C-alpha cells in the first residue's frame, strides 16, 4: 500500500521524536509563558536544560518554538537524546527481544486499525516494565493520527511489535528530565535566603561565572506553617533543579516554616543593603551549606511532614537521584526491569560501602556489646 505523506498534526507529533515529548513540552511552555520576551524564554530554556542557547546562524531571537531547530542548542540536545536512547536500547536489548516475541505470539498477523487500541493495551500488559495508562492513551492517540493521515487500515505484526517495544516501552524507560543527567548546570548557586511573610525563597546564582542573578520564588498559599514539605520540594526541584536539589529545597522550606511561625519583630533582616539579596531577606546561607540529608530525616528532625510510608520504586527517580530513590523503597510490586535496575544500584552501593581485608577500617572478628532492652517485649520470650 502506498503511504501518503503525514498531515500537519501527525507531522508535528512526529517531530517530538528528535528531543522527546517532555523537552518539546518545556520549549512550548516557555515560549508561551514569555511570549512578550523571547530573550527571557531562551535564557530560561538554557538554564532549565543545562545547555546555553547561544546566538548563531539561526533566527535570533527565535520567534516560535520551531525556530529552535536552527540553533546549536537543538543540535546538541538531539545528539544527547539520540545517545541516551542508543544506550537504553543496548542495555535492555534482551528485554526488547523477549517483549517482541511475546507481542508477535499474541498478534502474529497483526490487527486492523479498529483493533489497534486493544492490541496495544494487551501487549503493554506483557512488557517487563509498567506503562501508566495515561502514557498508553497518549501513545494510542498519536498512532491513531498517524494511521489516519496514512489512510492505513491494517497493522502488521512486525509494526505492532516495533510500536510497542521500541516506542511505548522506551517512553517509560527514558528518565524524566533526561537532559539534567547529560550536561552540567550552566549556573552555580551561591547563597539562599527566605522571608516568612510572605513566604518567599531567594536564590543567588552566577551565570556565567562572575555575573550574579537573584531568583525569587513566591510560595504564597502553597506553604503553610504545619504542612508537609516533601511534595512542594519535589515540585520546586522539578522546575529549578539546575540551581538546587530536592533535598536542599526541603531544607529551605522547613526553615521558611520556622520564620512563618515567628512574629515579624523577631524575624529581623540579617543581610546588608549592599547584599545582592533583598534587604528584607532573612537567614541567608551559602548554598553549599544546605542540609544534604534525606528528606525523610530533615522532615522528622523538624517535626514537620514526617515520612514513614515506604515509597514505590520509581525508575526515573533512580536514574536522576539514586540516593533518594533507594530511601525506604518498597520493591514488592516492582516489575522485573525495575527490580533488576534497583538491585544493580543497591549492589553498587554495597560494594562502595563494604569494608574488606586490607582496608584501614577493617576489623577482624569485631564484637559489639548489645545494650540491655529498656522494656520487655513478647519477642524476647522463648517459644519452648
TrEMBL record:
Coiled-coil ranges per the record? none
The superkingdom listed in its UniProt entry is Eukaryota
From start to end residue, where is composition biased (Low complexity)? 276-287
Q: Which GO terms describe its cellular component?
A: centriole; ciliary basal body; spindle pole
Species this protein is from = Leptomonas seymouri
Identification of the protein by name: Centrosomal protein of 19 kDa
Matching entries from InterPro entries are given as: CEP19
Q: Where is this region: Disordered?
A: 263-305
Per UniProt, the keywords (alphabetical) are:
Cell projection, Cilium, Cilium biogenesis/degradation, Cytoplasm, Cytoskeleton
Family to which this protein belongs:
Belongs to the CEP19 family.
Q: What Pfam families does the record tag this protein with? A: CEP19 (PF14933)
Q: What processes in GO biological process is this protein linked to?
A: microtubule anchoring at centrosome; vesicle targeting, trans-Golgi to periciliary membrane compartment
Q: Where in the cell is it found?
A: Cytoplasm, Cytoskeleton, Cilium basal body; Cytoplasm, Cytoskeleton, Microtubule organizing center, Centrosome, Centriole; Cytoplasm, Cytoskeleton, Spindle
Amino acid at each position: 500500500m502506498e503511504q501518503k505523506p503525514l498531515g500537519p498534526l501527525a507531522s508535528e507529533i512526529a517531530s517530538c521524536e528528535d528531543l522527546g515529548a517532555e523537552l518539546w513540552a518545556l520549549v512550548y511552555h516557555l515560549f508561551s509563558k514569555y511570549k512578550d520576551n523571547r530573550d527571557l524564554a531562551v535564557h530560561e530554556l538554557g538554564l532549565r536544560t543545562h545547555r546555553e542557547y547561544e546566538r548563531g546562524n539561526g533566527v535570533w531571537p527565535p520567534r516560535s518554538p520551531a525556530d529552535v531547530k536552527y540553533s546549536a542548542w537543538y543540535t546538541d540536545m538531539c545528539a544527547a537524546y539520540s545517545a541516551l536512547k542508543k544506550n537504553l536500547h543496548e542495555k535492555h536489548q534482551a528485554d526488547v527481544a523477549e517483549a517482541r516475541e511475546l507481542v508477535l505470539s499474541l498478534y502474529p498477523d497483526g490487527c486492523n486499525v479498529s483493533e489497534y487500541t486493544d492490541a496495544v493495551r494487551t501487549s503493554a500488559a506483557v512488557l517487563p516494565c509498567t506503562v501508566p495508562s495515561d502514557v498508553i492513551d497518549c501513545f494510542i492517540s498519536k498512532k491513531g493520527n498517524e494511521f489516519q493521515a496514512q489512510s492505513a487500515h491494517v497493522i502488521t505484526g512486525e509494526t505492532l511489535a516495533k510500536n510497542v517495544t521500541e516506542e511505548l516501552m522506551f517512553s517509560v524507560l527514558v528518565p524524566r528530565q533526561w537532559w539534567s543527567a547529560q550536561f552540567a548546570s550552566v549556573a552555580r548557586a551561591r547563597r539562599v535566603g527566605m522571608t516568612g511573610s510572605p513566604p518567599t525563597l531567594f536564590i543567588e546564582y552566577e551565570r556565567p561565572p562572575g555575573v550574579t542573578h537573584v531568583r525569587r520564588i513566591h510560595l504564597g498559599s502553597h506553604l503553610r506553617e504545619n504542612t508537609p514539605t516533601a511534595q512542594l520540594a519535589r515540585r520546586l526541584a522539578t522546575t529549578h533543579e539546575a540551581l538546587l536539589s530536592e533535598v536542599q529545597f526541603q531544607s529551605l522550606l522547613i526553615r521558611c516554616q520556622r520564620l512563618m511561625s515567628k512574629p515579624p519583630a523577631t524575624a529581623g533582616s540579617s543581610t546588608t543593603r549592599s547584599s545582592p539579596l533583598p534587604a528584607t531577606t532573612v537567614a541567608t546561607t551559602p548554598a553549599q551549606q544546605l542540609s544534604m540529608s534525606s528528606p525523610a530525616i530533615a522532615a522528622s528532625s523538624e517535626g514537620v511532614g514526617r515520612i514513614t510510608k515506604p515509597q514505590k520504586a520509581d525508575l526515573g527517580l533512580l536514574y536522576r537521584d539514586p540516593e533518594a530513590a533507594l530511601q525506604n523503597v518498597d520493591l514488592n510490586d516492582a516489575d522485573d526491569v525495575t527490580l533488576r535496575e534497583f538491585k544493580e544500584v543497591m549492589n553498587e552501593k554495597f560494594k562502595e560501602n563494604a569494608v574488606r581485608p586490607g582496608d584501614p577500617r577493617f576489623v577482624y572478628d569485631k564484637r559489639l556489646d548489645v545494650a540491655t532492652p529498656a522494656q520487655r517485649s513478647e519477642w524476647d520470650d522463648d517459644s519452648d
